[in-house]
Amino acid sequence: MRIIAVNAGSGSLKVSLFEVVPQDSMAEPREPLWTALLDTTAPDQPPDELLVSLDAGGISSRLGSISKDTPAETRIRGMLALMTRDSTLGGKPDAVVHRVVHGGERYTEAVRMTEEVEAGIDRLCAFAPLHNPVNLAGIRVAKEIFGDIPHVAVFDTAFHQRMPRYAATYAGPREWFERGIRRYGFHGTSFRWAAEYGAALLGRKNDPGLCLVICHLGGGCSLCATVGGWSIDTTMGFTPLDGIAMCTRSGSVDPGILIHLLREGMDTDELEELLNRQSGLLGLSGISGDTRVLIPLAEHGNEDARLAIGVFRHRLRRGIGGMLGSMGRTPDALIFTDVIGESAPSIRAAACEAFGFLGLRLDREANEAGSADREISCAESSGRVLVVRSREDWQMVRECAALLGDPEKSL
Q1: Phi, psi of 95 (to 5 degrees)
Q2: Which has the closest alpha carbon to 350: 339, 331, 334?
Q3: Would you say 146 and 172 are in contact if contact means Cβ atoms under 8 Å apart?
Q4: FRET label pair with 12: which of 45, 128, 216, 387, CA 20 to 30 Å apart?
Q5: What are the CA-CA distances from residue 404 to residues 144, 399, 400 (Å)?
Q6: Structure letter (DSSP) for residue 362
Q7: What is Dmax (Cα atoms) for the chain?
Q8: 90 DSSP 8-state letter
Q9: Strand (E) positions, 230-308?
Q10: What is the pLDDT of residues 349-388, one digit of tens each?
Q11: Of the residues 39, 156, 233, 332, which is catalytic?
Q12: What residues are paired with 261 via a beta bridge?
């Protein structure tokens, strides 16, 4: 069974092809036959173009480029056209699975795409304006190109549906919750994989008492506390704008600031643009929202970069502390995942250093090593610290295969 995973994020577009063999275990990570990537945040992008790269069996090549001044739907269509032109697809897939960021209260697990589901995702665009419109564009283009095969949606919010109501409720009027104004949480596809595979690395798979704090640090950043493989608290809320500081998003701010800006004459569209695309690391530094650019600059004394990275580290530490408070105990492990979590040892070190008073200690050499899926805490540490490679595309394929009913594909 050949399944294409379409992961259209706020700062990248990733399309991967997996071949699922019935006798193989779905619990172990699988590498795709190929992955095509369009990264809108890469520091080496040409001024007016977005590069489309292809990795097949560890061999990287460049498929072509797409103009930066194109809407999401055009980018996705152009990327798939480049892949088709180069015979990359290798024939029609059996199914396509799509990552959708916001599923609201209704979508609590993977579902097959229908007109009704598509309309539901469209209605939720207002809750995730950087993500759901792009997710929906990917669904529509893929249906147009691949035709009448199963299309499946996997929702980032689904992983957090078991959060206790007190953790999901804002301290506003009681009727907010009934109107759907509540904390949903995001990055659930990433958290689900990190929780399950992290448990396997710890030798505690399917342990209902396993407590983890997971740090998903990428273009968007959020933290999650899990017990027995499910979320009990997370830093993002009603939208993916809440929580710790991010690359271009502000994270949590005093609501009074927003009231003040509106009273000064800023309209809601300007405010949305400011908080989602002009804040975070980019807004603080005035240089870039990319840690690959800012960390070296900060280390060489650039004050704007130092402030941005300092704020990011501070908010990360506060977020971890909040997850510890929700858990009410020292976690069995702290896990870092996604681009920043996997590739920025200085960020990991700064985060863990703040909890040295709890006995948390890193192995410096292990932390500086380049590979993921490893432990980076030392033997004397009171808790274990892992780096787990983000495999959202593989998790999407697992959920798609399970939904489509292959008896060999139970999760």
Answers
A1: -160, 160
A2: 334
A3: no
A4: 387
A5: 21, 9, 6
A6: B
A7: 63
A8: -
A9: 230-234
A10: 999 999 999 999 999 999 999 788 999 999 999 999 999 9
A11: 156
A12: none
